[in-house]
Write a structure and sequence with these properties.
Layout (H helix, E strand, L loop, with lengths): L3 E2 L2 E2 L14 E2 L2 E2 L5 H10 L5 E6 L2 E7 H8 L4 H5 L14 E3 L4 H10 L2 H6 L1 E5 L2 E6 L1 H33 L1 H11 L4 E6 L7 E7 L3 E9 L3 H18 L3 H4 L2 H15 L15 E9 L4 E7 L3 E4 L5 E4 L20 E4 L5 E5 L1 H4 L11 H11 L5 H16 L8 E7 L6
Parallel strand pairs: 4-5, 7-8
Antiparallel strand pairs: 1-4, 2-3, 5-6, 8-9, 10-19, 11-12, 12-13, 13-14, 14-17, 15-16, 15-18, 18-19
Helix pairs in contact: 4-6, 8-10, 12-13
Length: 415
């Protein structure tokens, strides 16, 4: 091998997947080359950022252009070191990867090398033998392109997941419309992100309707995964007529299913997660003067035709959490159903939203007041008024959580 050799390879994949796909310069020097030869090589190739020192086909060091000229800018260094071996000024521990290494592995090696990893570049080998030198900027561009591609793929996947999540709620939408009519109920379902941790549920039979809201731990993708558990398990449980008719028993069974699904009751006593959900279910039968309900933490609002509001608080235990017993029971709530009464349910994303002008939570009191103020409006407009009040309170403050509101006019039960 001559003392100095230089060639360029530029053809590579649009987004490199491995080190061997990166653009490389085959710039190399033998250990016998002097610093004077290094200087000539850099002078004749202004775009060359560095050169590898290769001994019998194996890289032993790297010389960075800027570091090299900076060293010789010092007084007397040209006279003292120009004729010395290039080994004297090389970085003997350059960043090196095999050409089959993935781009993720390349990123890890460059990151471990610190600032020198980007300024010096990357030595690429094949079976330990020198393959070429890739500029740090080229590595950074490749990593950025890969990250952008992965981000686009992730967003596409999440968008499709949103379609799936909406599809899982289709039957509940149909059941609400069938039970209360198109204008007899109101539904606001607004995930904070593309997908979310809130869901609603409704199932109708020949005697009446069971409906409610479920607020799972978190939001975004983690919350959405929990909603898939909540929806599928609630569907299985409400296939049993006795659970469709008993919201309290339904919550108890759902708690057991969720804890089993999240592996929170292991024989060795270890707990893997502390996730769960808040939930409220109501059962309304045709011709009945009362509503049977049960709630794990979520409130129930009864709004009279005159705008008077009663809030019924849910029990303090949520479903599926580590400190919720496997045999936990939620008490039954019996609510008188007066003529023209409306029932509203909401998840805690409504109450917990911080305001822009006033840095405190919106709270259930303001939510109830907004419902009462719009009591004379159609139920959809009443729910919209409550949402508008929340949004006015929020202003430019970022949304904290998913938001769901479900309302039903009791007189409109159509079976």
């Amino acid at each position: 091998m001559s003392a100095a050799a230089l060639s360029v390879e530029t053809e590579y994949a649009a987004i490199p997947l491995r080190a061997g796909d990166l653009p490389v310069l085959s710039a190399q020097l033998a250990p016998a080359a002097t610093n004077d030869e290094v200087m000539r090589l850099f002078s004749e190739n202004p775009g060359l950022h560095g050169v590898a020192v290769v001994d019998q086909g194996r890289p032993i060091g790297l010389i960075n252009r800027n570091d090299f000229f900076g060293y010789f800018a010092r007084p007397f260094h040209r006279d003292l070191f120009l004729q010395k071996s290039c080994r004297s000024l090389m970085n003997s521990r350059p960043a090196i990867v095999e050409r089959e290494a993935s781009l993720a592995e390349v990123g890890a090696v460059v990151s471990a090398a610190g600032p020198k990893g980007l300024s010096d570049g990357l030595v690429i080998t094949e079976g330990g033998r020198y393959r070429g030198l890739c500029e740090g900027l080229a590595v950074l561009r490749a990593l950025t392109a890969l990250q952008s591609q992965q981000h686009a793929q992730l967003l596409s996947s999440i968008d499709y997941a949103s379609t799936i999540q909406s599809a899982l709620l289709t039957e509940s939408r149909k059941a609400l419309t069938a039970a209360f009519g198109q204008h007899g109920h109101a539904l606001v379902w607004r995930p904070r992100d593309v997908v979310g941790g809130d869901c609603f549920f409704a199932v109708r039979d020949e005697a009446g309707v069971l409906f409610g809201l479920i607020d799972c731990t978190g939001h975004g993708v983690p919350g959405a995964l929990l909603t898939s558990i909540a929806i599928s398990e609630t569907n299985r449980l409400t296939a049993r007529p006795e659970l469709r008719a008993d919201p309290s028993a339904l919550l108890g069974e759902l708690n057991r299913r969720v804890k089993a699904a999240l592996n929170q009751e292991r024989e060795d006593g270890e707990v893997q997660a502390d996730d769960g959900m808040d939930a409220v279910f109501l059962r309304l039968d045709a011709g009945s003067a009362t509503i049977r309900a049960a709630s794990a933490k979520l409130p129930i609002f009864i709004v009279s035709a005159a705008g008077e509001i009663e809030q019924v608080k849910g029990a303090r235990k949520g479903l599926g959490y580590r400190d919720t017993a496997l045999d936990q029971q939620w008490p039954e709530i019996v609510i008188p159903a007066g003529p023209g009464d409306r029932i509203f349910l909401a998840t805690d994303g409504v109450a917990d939203q911080i305001g822009q002008a006033t840095p405190m939570a919106f709270g259930w009191r303001r939510f109830a007041a907004a419902l009462g103020k719009a009591a004379g409006e159609p139920i959809a407009a009443q729910a919209a008024a409550a949402l508008a009040a929340l949004e006015a309170w929020q202003g430019d403050e970022p949304r904290r959580d998913d938001i769901s509101i479900l309302g039903a006019t009791l007189a409109d039960l159509a079976l």
